[in-house]
Amino acid sequence: MLEHIALGQYLPGSSVLHRLDPRSKLVGLLIFMLFLFISRHPLFLVVAIGIFIWTFSVSKVPLIYFFKSMRLIGIIIFITLLLQLFMNNDGEVLFQFFSVTVYSGGLTEGLLIGGRLFILVGMASLLTLTTTPVDLTDGLETLFSPLKKWRFPVHEMAFMISIALRFFPTLIEETARITKAQMARGASFSHGSPWKRVKTIIPIFVPLIVQSLKRAEELAVAMEARGYVGGEGRTKYRQLYWKGLDTLVISIITAYAVLGVLTRLL
Amino acid sequence: MEIKANDVTVKYMVGTPFEKVALHKINFTLRPSTYHVFIGKTGSGKSTFIQLLNGLLKPTEGSMLIGEKVVNRKTKMKQLYHLRKEIGMVFQFPEHQLFHDTVLEDVAFGPMNLGVGKVEAEKRAEESLSLVGISPSLYMRSPYELSGGQMRRVAIAGVLAMEPKVLVLDEPTAGLDPVGHIGMMELFNHWFKAKEGRSVILVTHNMEDAARYGEEIHVMYDGERKLVGTPSELFTKETKLNEYGISLPNTLSLLMELQRASGQALITDHFEIDDTVDEIVSFLRKDIENNA
Ligand SMILES: Nc1ncnc2c1ncn2[C@@H]1O[C@H](COP(=O)(O)OP(=O)(O)OP(=O)(O)O)[C@@H](O)[C@H]1O
Ligand SMILES: [Mg+2]
């Protein structure tokens, strides 16, 4: 049962999107999201949809995976659409269905809000589908590093996240191992009342916590023994490389943002 | 208790790109009341095989016969429950399974799971704790306050307290010091001899242990059982064993080297250090006589 858990939703691949620097992906996504709601000009919306479709096709992510990652948010978008259809009474009456009247304003609003939400979450999904968790953390660390001026522990936070990511599979393996050992001692996870079943978690939980604490301590000692000191002046083994492609992506997104502002003002 | 594998195949992560055949159509019977040893290089399927014995793992294809009980892919977990009573299993680093407040309670956990009453379970716990050499002064301590070696003994007592007929041991002495290692191996042997009808199934990378305690040695390689025999039958097949990534016990490889270097035939079907010394002494005597 535990063998099928994947961390995050990263899909290995070598598409253009996979090869982009995580920083340009993150900044690009941020700008895209911020400006998405700025203008409702048809030209701007077409451009936004175009960018979304282009990103998706260039990512080479299979459609199934994409929709799987959108399942939950899909429901929310659908509900938004319904609410708009039933509650909004701007514009002309489109049709009446028993006591429900649907107005044209409701339809356009619903589609606008729902569609933009879909694109927004879709873009974020594409980012996590094509970026390893480690790259994401690295990217976030560099982007947030200006905060260090105000003593925000950026490096430590990023380091914590990457350690957590690193040890997640170990934890899963360990859970499977301890579960087996307790089952061999006659512990049963399918017998008895709900209360009894909750109690069967203790023989797994306690050793797991103890092991994790021990491992954390060993890791800390090992790091200190090798002279680890926090963030200031530390270089990285894994370097991020900003390429021409990254500049191009940021330029396109900037153009999109400018278009958004212009169509809003005009 | 007889254990039989009929065309058993075990695959991990079926239906994913990572699918892995860990056991490939194995077919054999483990004699009852015998000390079995499984050897084989890493990844050969030893741990996978022993997990079949008490239903922690079910065959992907084929079936196991464990005593009277048939286990195949369709067998329900609930039906496997009572196998745990008959087959005691000690995993690598068993001390990682301790969780109760006190040593005594932890050891009694197994028997109580089998439906034994609290009083009886604690009586059994005390018996097996004294068997593994944990003194009564430690019974009320937290298992986490013990040394690593003591913790392991407590964990093993927890399995013995379930009074299994078959004791399955997966590298039980990993990480112990040499004296602790011998003590532990002697403990298992003592348990094995103490009562008629008991079996041990030991997985080990230690050839000295395999030679000393094993009555039947099984060689696993690439998901199959390739060789089986008594120590003296098996360790005379040096070339075959090398092919399967297995070395000889040190006592034996010393004699083999001596035999090769001197060109004289030596008796090489005993593995105890005393036998090796005797053989070398008699070799030296002959050598001196020949020179004189
Ligand atoms: N939970 C698992 N998921 C996927 N593959 C596994 C799993 N457990 C074992 N395997 C694979 O099955 C094969 C047999 O593993 P097994 O643990 O039985 O080997 P072993 O003989 O016990 O090795 P070792 O001497 O290292 O303990 C190995 O190739 C291993 O990678
Ligand atoms: Mg193993």
Automatic annotation (TrEMBL), chain A:
InterPro entries: ABC/ECF_trnsptr_transmembrane. Its main location: membrane. It is a multi-pass membrane protein. It comes from the Bacteria. The keyword Transferase does not apply. The chain crosses the membrane at residues 26-57, 69-87, 93-112, 244-263. It is found in: Membrane. The keyword Hydrolase does not apply. Keywords: Membrane, Transmembrane, Transmembrane helix. CDD domains: EcfT. It holds the Pfam family CbiQ. This is Energy-coupling factor transporter transmembrane protein EcfT. It comes from Evansella alkalicola. The lineage of its organism: Bacteria, Bacillati, Bacillota, Bacilli, Bacillales.
Automatic annotation (TrEMBL), chain B:
Residues 3-247 form the ABC transporter domain. Keywords: ATP-binding, Cell membrane, Membrane, Nucleotide-binding, Translocase, Transport. It is a peripheral membrane protein. Its EC number is 7.-.-.-. SUPFAM superfamilies: P-loop containing nucleoside triphosphate hydrolases (SSF52540). PROSITE patterns: ABC_TRANSPORTER_1, ABC_TRANSPORTER_2. The keyword Cell membrane applies. Gene3D superfamilies: P-loop containing nucleotide triphosphate hydrolases. ATP-binding (A) component of a common energy-coupling factor (ECF) ABC-transporter complex. This is Energy-coupling factor transporter ATP-binding protein EcfA2. It comes from Evansella alkalicola. The lineage of its organism: Bacteria, Bacillati, Bacillota, Bacilli, Bacillales.
